Amino acid sequence: MVAEMQTPSQTVPLELIPDQDEAGRSGLIPEESLQKVVRFDLREEGSHVLAVSVSYSENILSKSASSASGGRVRSFRKLYQFAAQPCLSVRTKASVLPLPETSNDQRLLAKRSRYALEAQLENLADGLITLENLTFDAKSPFKSTSLNWDIPNLDSKRATAPTLAPREVTQVAFVLDEGYEPGDTPKEYTKDNRVILGVLTIQWRSAFGDPGVLSTGWLTSRRI
Fold it and tell me: Residues 157-164: what's their mean pLDDT?
């Protein structure tokens, strides 16, 4: 038994779970069945095809049913086509924030920068999704501070992660402060002179408990 996933860009062989069992080694008796599980992370939109190929040989039992001889080798192939669609839409915006005047060194303040990174998340799925984890991997020398449900309340309890109905939208935000320690690397720019800020990663679960994850590309500031 062989399984593979055909995506819009490539064909990926899939591992069968469990990979070996007694039925696979010794064959199936009449009325017995064999079941395998495959797992695949959907990373592309568009048409996908799960292809499963099975090869087997028919054993011919003697009249006394005490012995068997090998028969013809047969095979068949099944195709299961489906369309993969995004579950979550992400729109981001980076805005410059004024620096807190915590230093008397005006030259140091002039070199530093501070941004607010806002993201609008929209549920594109047909059912509920529950946001589980939200992280911003800031590009050095920036350090990120979450302004979302993972901030402890005054009673030191975390807020409940939001659940989004189909087409429902929620807003999330981070504050990005440029570091000024001696070991911090200088900030990096794109070719069109935008500051590279970092990567946003969102994890969620569907109403049936299926996990999902989405990571953006490098998010940048407005052109300087």
Answer: 78
